[in-house]
């Protein structure tokens, strides 16, 4: 059986539709309907959360899904575990620049909040730490996570 408008070839065996690949030894692959795509993607990808190419290769060996590449990429892009644990790939940082300080008290400072400390007698539960870079002086200011801007 040959499709009329495209160069795709199909065959029916045991009431199942197969796509016959004309490029590589007329290999036949079971056609999967759009309704079953997501279930196939789940089985192929979610078991090990492997990258796109491995998942694609695993599916394409024996199954034919129209526009597999586009649909599989969209599925993997929305995989919650992959989004959570993916390695961030970005342009590498340039060499860090040294911060030049002046001989002036509190000219260059760093500020850090330390949150969720055990509550003190005065009910403080976080701390602001300010460090002067030149004098290496540190100030620790107790505070509460419930403070507003006015306080």
Structure description:
With 151 residues, this protein is an alpha+beta fold. Among the domains are: 32-85; 109-143, no CATH class. Helix content is 23%, strand content 24%. It has helices at 37-46, 52-60, 68-77, 80-85; strands at residues 9-13, 16-20, 28-31, 63-64, 109-114, 126-132, 137-143. The strands form two sheets. Strands 1-2-3-4 form a four-stranded mixed sheet, with no helix packed on it. A three-stranded antiparallel sheet has the order 5-6-7, with no helix packed on it. The longest helix has 10 residues, at 37-46. Residues 1-5 have low confidence and may be disordered.
List the helices and strands and how they pair.
Layout: E1 9-13, E2 16-20, E3 28-31, H1 37-46, H2 52-60, E4 63-64, H3 68-77, H4 80-85, E5 109-114, E6 126-132, E7 137-143
Helix pairs in contact: 1-2, 2-3
In short:
This protein is an alpha+beta fold. Among the domains are: 32-85; 109-143, no CATH class.
Summarize this structure as a short list of keywords or feature phrases.
single chain; 151 residues; alpha+beta; four-stranded mixed beta sheet; three-stranded antiparallel beta sheet; 4 helices; 7 strands; 23% helix; elongated
């Amino acid at each position: 059986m040959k499709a009329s408008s495209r160069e795709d070839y199909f065959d029916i065996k045991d009431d199942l539709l197969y796509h016959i690949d004309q490029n590589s030894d007329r290999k036949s692959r079971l056609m999967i309907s759009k309704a079953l795509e997501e279930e196939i993607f789940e089985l192929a990808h979610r078991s090990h959360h492997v990258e796109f190419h491995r998942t694609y290769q695993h599916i394409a060996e024996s199954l034919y899904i129209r526009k597999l590449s586009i649909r599989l990429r969209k599925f993997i892009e929305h995989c919650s575990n992959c989004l959570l644990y993916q390695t961030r790939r970005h342009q590498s940082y340039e060499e860090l620049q040294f911060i030049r300080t002046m001989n002036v008290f509190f000219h260059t400072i760093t500020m850090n909040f330390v949150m969720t400390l055990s509550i003190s007698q005065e009910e403080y539960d976080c701390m602001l730490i300010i460090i002067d870079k030149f004098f290496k002086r540190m100030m620790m200011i107790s505070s509460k996570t419930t403070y507003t801007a006015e306080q």
